[in-house]
Design goal:
By secondary structure, the protein is an alpha/beta fold. The protein has a domain of about 130 residues: Trna Endonuclease, Chain: A, domain 1 (3-Layer(aba) Sandwich). Helices cover about 50% and strands about 25% of the residues. The chain is built from five helices and six strands. Strands 1-2-3-4-5-6 form a six-stranded mixed β-sheet, with helices on both faces. The longest helix has about 70 residues. The protein is elongated.
């Protein structure tokens, strides 16, 4: 075999080996893609299960309890809605539960597990509620959080911020706040601004 023939044979075997490696790489990529797709499917199912659980908790446990629970606290609510979406200037806001009475509006954030950052974000959104939902506008706006479980000290944090805290006990919902609790009234930023300008 001449040197040229040996070189051609080496090149041929080299290409053949490279092709085998490419095929093996393609096979591994496909296996990884299949594995990733399965993991994404499982994750999507878990997210869907959590969303369904939250929806069931809000609809079956929290929603029917709001009017009687607040009535016991001397707060009258005549109308109640769940999952209210709104868009203003390209920005979105959605209320889990909202209710109105003659003198006040009540907005409740619902979570399966309540964390402090949930409360902080909710507090930031409350002053803008009347801007997105003018039909809810009342002299007083109360806020509340409802959850199946609450992280340690988060209930106290929400309490100190003037929020009603609704927790599940068995199959029932109760207001965690004691009788000494004084709820905070949250107002629209536009309303506050108008009031400040009027005073000056």
């Amino acid at each position: 075999m001449t040197t040229l023939e040996k070189l051609e044979e080496l090149i041929y075997h080299g290409f053949k080996e490279t092709d085998k490696r490419f095929q093996e790489t393609d096979r591994r990529i496909k296996e990884n893609d299949d594995l990733l797709n399965k993991k994404l499917d499982r994750l999507a199912k878990q997210v869907g299960d959590i969303t369904d659980s939250l929806g069931r908790f809000a609809e079956s446990t929290v929603f029917p309890a709001v009017i009687p629970l607040f009535k016991k606290r001397g707060i009258q609510i005549n109308q109640l809605w769940g999952r209210l979406p709104a868009v203003q200037n390209g920005r979105e806001m959605e209320l889990d539960i909202a209710g109105i009475g003659p003198e006040c509006a009540v907005v409740i954030e619902v979570k399966l597990r309540l964390k402090q950052d949930h409360v902080e974000k909710f507090l930031q959104s409350l002053p803008h509620v009347f801007d997105y939902f003018p039909l809810l506008r009342r002299p007083v706006l109360y806020g509340g959080v409802a959850a199946m479980s609450i992280d340690k000290e988060v209930d106290r944090f929400a309490y100190k911020q003037g929020l009603f805290v609704l927790t599940q006990t068995g199959d029932n919902l109760r207001v965690w706040n004691d009788q000494a609790f004084k709820p905070r009234s949250f107002h629209s930023t536009k309303s506050n601004g108008a009031q400040k300008r009027k005073k000056t």
